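About this split. The held-out portion is used to measure sequence recovery: a designer receives only the structure tokens and must propose an amino acid at every position. Recovery is the fraction of positions where the proposal matches the reference. Here is one held-out target exactly as it appears in the evaluation file.
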């Protein structure tokens, strides 16, 4: 009888430990925010996508803000009748495509931006660690920022399906989303000006993530193990690409055209609604 009680006690203790451990595991999972928000490329560095961040930092996308400064790309600016000695780092027309999330929640805020109370809320810029001031991860991979789906990625430790993150705004229609800037009607760098401005997705894509040389002994665990499995899936955004938002500049501020937005948060449903190309 005593042995039986001891055995039962051990079983109960084991069950408690298992359930307690499961509880701890669940507790470590972060809660997904209600709305999407741009968080910046730096969030991808440090624990999850270091090699990708380093490769991006050295890519053309990692230097787009720099091109807006005086004296940069002089000949290219002259070609499209821009003043090469002018500072375009606060020009809203340029910032939309040369930074991340400009005009949207959590997105880049140029120098001199203040809130209603007059507090400076401009985005900090660190030359050694580029972030929102360049064309970062979220400009290509999300409709309104990666604040939500990055939590899904972390909670699942990278073991997720395309549909798991698509519902939070991750997009897989890359050739489509690149047209957001590269062939937008507002860009002065049109093919009619020079053949070099003809957009070839496959050629440009090859310059974005040249990651292999950025893997080291210390970050081998950050290789995307499920990448090949996800490549076999066809996401909804691949079947029906999302709309590309259009915008105009009104009184010095960017204004997105409502009927072109690919995403909108529905306050009544307390959920996001996606809009696809017809």
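Reference sequence for scoring:
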């Amino acid at each position: 009888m005593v042995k039986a009680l001891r055995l039962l006690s051990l079983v109960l203790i084991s069950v408690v430990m298992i359930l307690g451990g499961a509880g701890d595991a669940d507790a470590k999972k972060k809660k997904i925010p209600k709305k999407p928000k741009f968080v910046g490329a730096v969030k991808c560095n440090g624990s999850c996508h270091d090699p990708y961040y380093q490769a991006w930092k050295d890519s053309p996308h990692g230097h787009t803000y720099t091109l807006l400064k005086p004296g940069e790309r002089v000949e290219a600016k002259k070609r499209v009748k821009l003043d090469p000695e002018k500072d375009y780092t606060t020009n809203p027309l340029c910032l939309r495509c040369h930074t991340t999330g400009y005009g949207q929640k959590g997105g880049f805020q140029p120098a001199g931006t203040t809130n209603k109370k007059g507090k400076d809320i401009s985005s900090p810029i660190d030359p050694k660690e580029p972030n929102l001031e360049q064309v970062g991860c979220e400009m290509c991979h999300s409709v309104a920022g990666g604040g939500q789906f990055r939590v899904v990625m972390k909670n699942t430790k990278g073991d997720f399906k395309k549909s798991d993150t698509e519902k939070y705004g991750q997009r897989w229609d890359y050739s489509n989303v690149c047209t957001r800037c590269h062939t937008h009607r507002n860009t002065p760098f049109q093919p009619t000006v020079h053949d070099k401005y003809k957009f070839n997705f496959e050629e440009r894509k090859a310059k974005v993530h040249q990651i292999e040389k950025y893997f080291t002994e210390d970050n081998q665990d950050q290789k995307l193990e499920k990448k090949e499995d996800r490549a076999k899936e066809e996401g909804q955004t691949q079947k029906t690409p999302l709309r590309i938002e259009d915008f105009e500049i009104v009184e010095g501020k960017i204004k997105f055209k409502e009927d072109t937005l690919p995403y909108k948060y529905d306050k009544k449903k307390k959920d996001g609604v996606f809009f696809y190309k017809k």
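Annotator remark: DSSP finds twelve helices and four strands in the chain.
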